[in-house]
Specification:
By secondary structure, the protein is of the alpha+beta class. The protein is built from 9 helices and 6 strands.
């Protein structure tokens, strides 16, 4: 596996030798001082070029970066799916190399280069001085933000309402619908609530990362273990218990934060929704009425 220095030498060497490439910048986990360093970190590279078209029309130029295991061109995939695309504004290659390294490489024309919108950006090369000076990278833009009271209400209402879908999917024994309702609708609201707790406990100056992957760093061990108890598999009977654990954890954290922030929490709605879930579990499979 090529070292970080070898990869940087290659990335910059390609740019220096290609007259069409005028600048290079990087963002992502490798520029984040708070991200753990490991062998799976991508090289998120942007080449600032005169024109995108020569690069996406003749893709053989990327062969110089090394032998590929497989690759995706996300803009091509978007076009295949009928989504609006503009290859001349931005075009990318997501490359997994055979040596284990991965590079997410994009080209943008000079007039589209943007190093200020992401505070994790680092300028690696600027042949013509076309990029503005920027501060040292920080993950400040990704810090958990304290929600407004309406945002808090929205999270709570979404969680307790979507529990209805989970209840009927569990009763119907529709495993795929159970997973969709659980992981697609209900649990994301719990994770949002736990992110807010982590932010509150740490002065709202931390990032839990993409998909809240660093959340376990900032939660008390007891809360983290309770979150783990909410995950479900293929056993639908156990899934009921996980759903109950989900509700109890959400309710506890929502109550805690509402008290700390002086926000109103609709406990009547929460108790009604949770009560409905418990009631549905008691219904026999040949039930003719819900109540």
């Amino acid at each position: 596996m090529r070292t970080q220095q070898e990869m940087f030498d290659l990335i910059l060497g390609v740019a220096e030798k290609d007259e069409r490439i005028r600048a290079v910048y990087m963002n992502g986990s490798r520029t984040n001082p708070n991200a753990p360093k490991d062998i799976f970190q991508d090289y998120d590279i942007v080449y600032v070029v005169r024109q995108n078209k020569p690069f996406y029309e003749d893709k053989s130029w990327i062969d110089r970066f090394g032998e590929r295991l497989y690759m995706q061109c996300p803009d091509e995939v978007d076009r295949w799916n009928g989504l609006p695309t503009d290859f001349d504004a931005c075009y990318g290659w997501l490359i997994q190399f055979k040596d284990g390294n991965r590079m997410d490489l994009h080209v943008v024309p000079c007039e589209k280069a943007d190093v200020r919108s992401d505070k994790l950006c680092v300028i690696l090369l600027d042949k013509d001085g076309i990029l503005p000076a920027i501060d040292a990278p920080t993950d400040r833009d990704y810090w958990v933000q304290k929600p407004s009271e309406p945002e808090f209400w929205a999270c709570c209402n979404e969680f307790w309402w979507c529990l209805n879908n989970l209840a009927k999917a569990l009763w119907r024994k529709e495993l795929l619908a159970v997973h969709q309702s659980f992981y697609g609708l209900c649990q994301p609201q719990l994770i949002k609530m736990l992110d807010w707790k982590a932010g509150n406990d740490n002065g709202f100056c931390i990032s839990t990362g993409k998909a809240s992957k660093y959340l376990n760093r900032y939660l008390p061990e007891t809360v983290w273990n309770r979150l783990l108890e909410t995950f479900i598999g293929a056993d639908l009977e156990k899934a009921w218990d996980s759903a109950f654990a989900l509700c109890e954890l959400f309710d506890d954290i929502a109550c805690e934060l509402s008290e700390k922030w002086g926000y109103r929490y609709n406990t009547e709605e929460a108790h009604a929704s949770y009560g409905f879930l418990k009631h549905v579990r008691t219904l026999p499979q040949d039930a003719k009425n819900i109540f």
